[in-house]
Amino acid sequence: MGTAPDFAAGLTAAVTPILPGFGVEQVAEIDSTNTELMRRARAGRCEPVLLVAERQTAGRGRLGRPWQSTQDTAQRTSLTFSLGLPLTPKDWSGLSLAVGVSVAESLDPTASAGVRLKWPNDLWVDDRKLVGILIETAVPLGDAAQRYVVIGIGVNVGPREAEGLRMPPAWVQEWRPDATPGQLLLDVVPPLIATVQAFAERGFAPFAERFAARDALRGRDVQLSDGTRGHCEGVGWGGELRVRTAEGLQEVTSAEVSVRPSGMAF
Ligand code: BTN
Q: Which residue intervals define the domain BPL/LPL catalytic in the entry (predicted)?
């Protein structure tokens, strides 16, 4: 995968002050980093951890879709990892959007590369997919008072072919030719953890304007996977997608709904 050998030490040092007990694990191959952390959480293992995989044999995306990484070679690289930690926000709505904001700002701090946020949590560049995010929660050992969140992130680092993908890909090396998975982990993970902690304290509202600044759908005609068509008016303070339809304003919150600019296939 091309991670620097000491990325784990650097990450642990950067994160431990804000998340005591944090650990980093890197594996050559696994079915899915999300699946593994969910398995552990259900078995009662709820430590804060970053699990990085060089290859996933059964990577998962949203809505039950598969997630395929590039076949790693020197030029064609991808980054796949999951962050797991105990979390008890008052309101979960908007977490995936806040995560997207954090990752977009880390990969493209000045927005000069055109990294945009496609509700609820994809990162696009010119309507091509750069990053996919899958967030799941587990109730450890059936104790409903506790929740463990698993935030899985897949990043295209190097170039990849569009063949076999649902939408054309973008990759970080388009604007950062020297980007490596290890460096990107150091860039992305500490701010991501700070974001998740801030979200747990204050919810999505503090992130709403930052989402709006990179919103890929606002001002465009869109269609929802349930057939609804309308004009996107951006996201609300709770992270809901606002779509003006012929029947009026529809606020979309369901994670089961997919949205696309009009004319783009699902
Ligand atoms: C999507 O675009 O639908 C979400 C894709 C999420 C992919 C990442 S890769 C690391 C983690 N492990 C998985 O199996 N999925 C997520």
A: 23-200
